[in-house]
Write a structure and sequence with these properties.
By secondary structure, this protein is of the alpha/beta class. It is 52% helix and 19% strand. The chain has 10 helices and 8 strands. The longest helix has 34 residues.
Length: 308
C-alpha cells in the first residue's frame, strides 16, 4: 500500500497539467514515501488526455483514468477514490488555484496528530467574480444551517483524508454525489489549514452557472429535508390566512351586509396559491427524481481506458 495518493480531476486543463504535476511531485519527493498521482480525465475535448498519457509514460508514479464522456467533477473524484490504494488521499483540482505546496502541511498534520480529515479553508479568493464569491459564501452558510452535522465553511474539495474516511465514503450509495458533504457527514475529527486561493493559471472553469445550481441542489436535497418542512410551514400559514379571509368575507356579508367583490383581488389570490402549489410540486419532484436515480442505480461514470 502506498503512503499517499493525490487525486486530480481534469476537464480541459491542457495549459495547467505539466506545471501542476511538477509542483505536486516536488512535494511528494520531499515527503519521501511511496506515492502516486492519479489523473482522472472527465471527457476533455482539448489535449488533456494526450498530456496525461505522455506524463504517464515519463513518470512511474502517475496513474490515470479516462472517461468516455463528461460525467462531472464529483464522479471523477469518486473514481479516483476507488482507484487509490493509499494510507491517505489528497483531492486537488487541476486549475492551480489551490497550491499543491499545501499538501506537505496537510500530510504533516495527518502524520503527527493522526487527524483523519485536513481541509483547506479559503480566506481569500483571487480572480473570481463578486457574484460567485457572494453566492458561495451565502450558500455554505445556509447549507450549514439546515443540516444536522458540521460542515466547514469557505472550503471546496481540496483536502487530505485518511483511508478509513475513504472507505466510509465508498460505502455510500448516493446517486447524486456531494463529496464535501459526504466526507463531513462521517463525523471524523478534522482540522483546517487556511490559504489564499489564487487566480486560475490557464483555461476557464468547467462549472457553469447551471452546473453550480445543480451541484448546490444536490447538496441540499441529499442532506436535508428543510425544503419539505418549509413547504409544509408555508402551507399551514396560508391555510390559516385563507380561513381568516373566509371568516372576514362571511362576517362582512351576514353582519354588515357588505359583499366583497373584485375580480382583480380574486385573480391575484388564485395566481399566488397556484404559484405556491407549483413550487411545492417542483420540490417534491426533486426528491422523487433522486429516489428514481437511486432505484435505477446507474454507474457514476464509464471508463474508456485506465492505467494498471
Amino acid at each position: 500500500m502506498k503512503e499517499i495518493s493525490v487525486i486530480v480531476p481534469v476537464f480541459n486543463e491542457e495549459g495547467n497539467l505539466a506545471d501542476l504535476y511538477k509542483r505536486i511531485n516536488d512535494v511528494l519527493i520531499k515527503i519521501n514515501k511511496k506515492s502516486s498521482v492519479i489523473f482522472i480525465d472527465d471527457g476533455s475535448n482539448d489535449n488533456s488526455k494526450k498530456i496525461i498519457l505522455e506524463l504517464h509514460k515519463q513518470n512511474n508514479n502517475i496513474e490515470y483514468i479516462l472517461f468516455t464522456r463528461n460525467f462531472g467533477h464529483q464522479s471523477a473524484v469518486f473514481a479516483g477514490l476507488i482507484k487509490s490504494n493509499s494510507k491517505c488521499v489528497v483531492i486537488i483540482d487541476a486549475d492551480l488555484q489551490d497550491p499543491p505546496e499545501l499538501i506537505s502541511e496537510m500530510y504533516s498534520e495527518w502524520l503527527t496528530n493522526e487527524t483523519p480529515i485536513i481541509y483547506a479553508q479559503r480566506i481569500k479568493r483571487k480572480g473570481e467574480s463578486i457574484f460567485k464569491k457572494i453566492t458561495a459564501k451565502f450558500y455554505y452558510r445556509f447549507f450549514s444551517s439546515i443540516i444536522d452535522f458540521n460542515i466547514p465553511l469557505d472550503t471546496g474539495d481540496f483536502r487530505l483524508i485518511d483511508k478509513k474516511v475513504v472507505n466510509e465514503v465508498l460505502k455510500m450509495k448516493d446517486s447524486n454525489l456531494f463529496l464535501r458533504g459526504q466526507i463531513s457527514w462521517t463525523g471524523y475529527r478534522s482540522k483546517k489549514i487556511e490559504y489564499v486561493r489564487q487566480k486560475r493559471k490557464s483555461g476557464k472553469t468547467g462549472y457553469s452557472l447551471k452546473k453550480m445550481i445543480r451541484f448546490g441542489l444536490d447538496g441540499i436535497i441529499s442532506f436535508s429535508n428543510y425544503p419539505l418542512k418549509l413547504i409544509s410551514l408555508i402551507g399551514f400559514y396560508l391555510t390559516v390566512i385563507s380561513l381568516l379571509l373566509i371568516l372576514y368575507a362571511l362576517s362582512s356579508k351576514f353582519y354588515y351586509g357588505n359583499v366583497i367583490d373584485g375580480w382583480t383581488s380574486l385573480t391575484i389570490i388564485i395566481s399566488f396559491f397556484g404559484g405556491i402549489q407549483l413550487i411545492a410540486i417542483g420540490i417534491f419532484g426533486q426528491y422523487l427524481a433522486r429516489i428514481n436515480d437511486n432505484v435505477l442505480s446507474r454507474s457514476h461514470y464509464i471508463i474508456s481506458r485506465q492505467s494498471k
